[in-house]
Amino acid sequence: QYRYHPILSDLRLILDVPGIARLVSLVPNATENCDGNKPLGHLSFLDSWIKTLSLCQNMDGQVWRSWGQTHVENEHQSWMGAYMLSVSLGDIFERLLAWEDDDPCPINIKNKSKEECLLSVSELTVYIMSTGLDTWQTSEMNSYKPTANIFDIPQPRRCPSSLPYSTVAVDYGSDLAMEALPVAQVRPFSFHIPLHRFVAVCLREVARRPNARVGTEKNKDVTNQVGKEDGIHLVLTSLLSSFGSQRLKRFLRGLVEFPVIVLSRVAQIRSGLWKRNGYCMSEQVGRYDEQEYCRSMKDADLMLLQFAIIAHQALHSFGSVDDTYVNDAGCAYITNLLLHRFGLFDFAGFDKSPNSDTTRYLEEVKQGLYQGEVRSNNSDALVLPWTYTPAKEPSSFLALLEQLLQLFIVLITELPSPYPRNRSEEAIQAKMRLRREVIHKLVSGPKLHSELTEVYLVLSKRDNNILSEEGKLANPDDAMGAALEEALSEVADRKASRGKGGAQQWELRRHAWSEYDPSFYHMSLKAHQIAAEKRPYFTDFGNPSATTAQDASTSIILPGYTSTPPPEPYAPHPPPSHLSFSRIRRDFTSDATVISLVYRTLHVHCHKAGNKAPEQIKVCLRGKDAYDRKAMSERVLAHTIQLLTLGAYAWQEQTSTKHWRSSGGGGKGSIFYHTKNTSPTISDWIRSTLLADPCDIMKSDWYSGEECSLLLLRRLAHDGGNVNG
After folding, report:
1. Could you give the 3-state DSSP secondary structure of residue 105?
2. Least trusted range by pLDDT, from 103-107, 397-401, 559-563
3. Range 110-119 contact pairs with CB under 8 angstroms and sequence separation of 24 or more
């Protein structure tokens, strides 16, 4: 920590010099020196930077202590140095990209134009991916080896060659299994993957800029043909042309796997599965989520997942001249990977599709769609893909499920914003992001002005600079304070202090509660729990004594009212999203696996008790542990309702009838996969999710005669769930 700190401090000072950051994009080893006499014979800054970040990958690795091991005796504190380095690098990342594509070159290079010497941010991103990240991922992925599924190997050390899809996904076009890294539970993992996160920061910048140039003239021609000019699409087409389909497929697999490993291990730690490793693991997870660190760590990991989803789709559909459904990848790959990495596949009641069709499984292995499983030396018996979970108790499964559902919600909601067309739009977007952070800071209770300034930690350096410039117009002496005051004046009121000399606090106005997201990712679980207790349920009716959740549950028509107040959505409409990422909302909310998981959770909490005999649950039901009373949670149930709400928002929007699949929701694993000509409507989505036969949703005869999702939601609204819950 003491060695790298002065180096990074000096680098910050250098990057603050106007024009210096633009030289980061200097084409490596492709130019002569400033005098034009001889080529540069050493590594460029960009190559050296990529090499340095590669050395920092997976620093401070952590190894899971299994159930048979004792609690760690001595907890080390070396993790703090690794965290401080990751946070410091996150700040450097934004400074390195603090330039625009049309900024001039600060040095003169003989016989070279700016376009020949300097990369655009899109070209820079592709260069880092192709020369740095792909090289590291290839080397790292080669170190993962599958094992046989035999008793001689402890379960935490076993890892399959591929992961099975559920029969639910297979009915909508998915293969029987999927390629995946053979990750054992005891494989060391690290919270720190700075090279991946530098790529994530680059992708944020690409999404922010409207007309970033990239690649060859061939790529530009393709872009013009499809009518897309944003930088994200240009990056995708350039990756495909420079990587090729097979290399890009492997690269995208790594781009998904390494952030997912971090996210899944974080979920395990929160669920109490790493207690034997000591309290330091919980401290690290706390910092992974904290406002001071999340932008450099968790938010970057989420960005990589979102990009991988649309890139996976582009890989399958690139070059297609029609809108045939066979070319649409959907998000089934990501959904299935998350289910397995979180250890919830069996708990959610899914059936492994290779077990139900071994002939097709062997054919797909022969075709090279994925690898077959490792067999023991003395056995010719067929080995099928399997799954593993470290969880044993229903409470642990419940905690994992809660975090998986919230991850789905965040991936749908927190998409990159549309690129601003001018400085005015950029200022408006920055103010809206500030407003959103302020509201979610205040929902947990009144706050001092000094506490509210923490919201600047989760905003980008660029947003903070823009807000500062806007604030100078109101108060040149306190520009940042003026921007915050403007946001507060719209959503909060000053609360009188108690006693003389007490500092005044800000309290959220009643109307601003309509913008509260119950799964907002920059709030802690404790803050959300406090907000749930304080949240007004019937707004604009002026009766403070009858507006709490407790009052709302006692009567449909509250005292003091003559009729039932109009219903309000459980969650607000998500913020506007970047055009290249907007399809994610339809892809997730129409994914058959997600819909099955939502129905299953609703059924666990709201089914009519007595419909099934206890013997039927114990013998015939897959994942019967989910029906344990210890596996029920109001927060898990709330997440399912929010997912349905987000689905309603996503499918209300009209799309082109002819090319509706390009807007998402028609890929492999989607409930609309077999829909060919007509664009699905909100009515179709309701019919396929809320009104569908539970047997069709779950692909299980056990649910024959059970109520559909709409009836379960009605019971929740009127009775609060099942009679036992």
Report:
1. coil
2. 559-563
3. 110/32, 110/34, 110/35, 110/36, 111/36, 112/31, 112/32, 115/213, 116/27, 116/30, 116/31, 117/26, 117/27, 117/30, 117/31, 118/22, 118/25, 118/26, 118/27, 119/25, 119/26, 119/27
